[in-house]
From TrEMBL:
<feature type="domain" description="Activator of Hsp90 ATPase homologue 1/2-like C-terminal">
    <location>
        <begin position="13"/>
        <end position="152"/>
    </location>
</feature>
<dbReference type="InterPro" id="IPR023393">
    <property type="entry name" value="START-like_dom_sf"/>
</dbReference>
<protein>
    <recommendedName>
        <fullName>Activator of Hsp90 ATPase homologue 1/2-like C-terminal domain-containing protein</fullName>
    </recommendedName>
</protein>
<dbReference type="InterPro" id="IPR013538">
    <property type="entry name" value="ASHA1/2-like_C"/>
</dbReference>
<dbReference type="Pfam" id="PF08327">
    <property type="entry name" value="AHSA1"/>
</dbReference>
<comment type="similarity">
    <text>Belongs to the AHA1 family.</text>
</comment>
Length: 154
């Protein structure tokens, strides 16, 4: 069993608004890539058992080696449990030759009402050993900050 990483953020939007941003292709392309990356969804099937394929590209690949190529991380995501507006479970597999990035990482997005806001907690289980905990938590925090910016201005 691999490592578990967890990051939370209070977002000034309803759980339904946040949930919808987790299941909208254009929204994901806008907010999911962490700082320093852009993202493109290549395949989209938003239902349990469906999923998406995302190509994340480093804006400056120098010093940021990708998992798939020097400048990219490609990840196939399968949707597991989708419980509106409480939870989204994703199973992520990185396209990589390095076995340190192999395996299935499960990411659960928990959405809990907090007054007029939503506490969003991302729990990543079985994180591949090639992804450092500090970098992973920083990346998740960056994606949550992007999500907050995306839904709070909506």
């Amino acid at each position: 069993m691999g490592r578990t990483d967890r990051v939370s953020r209070l977002i000034a939007a309803s759980p339904t608004t946040v949930y919808n941003a987790l299941l909208d292709r254009g929204a994901l392309e806008a907010w999911l890539p962490p700082e320093g990356m852009s993202g493109r969804v290549e395949r989209w099937d938003p239902r349990p058992g469906g999923g998406f394929r995302m190509v994340l590209t480093y804006l400056d690949a120098a010093g940021s080696p990708g998992k798939t190529s020097e400048a990219t991380d490609v990840v196939d995501i399968e949707f597991g449990d989708l419980v509106a507006p409480e939870r989204v479970v994703q199973r992520a597999v990185f396209e990589a030759d390095d076995p340190a990035f192999a395996g299935v990482m499960t990411m659960t997005w928990h959405l809990v009402p907090a007054g007029e806001a939503t506490e969003v907690t991302v729990t990543a289980e079985d994180v591949p050993s090639g992804i450092s905990q500090a970098d992973h938590e920083e990346g998740i925090a960056s994606s949550l900050a992007n999500l907050a910016s995306y839904v709070e201005k909506a």
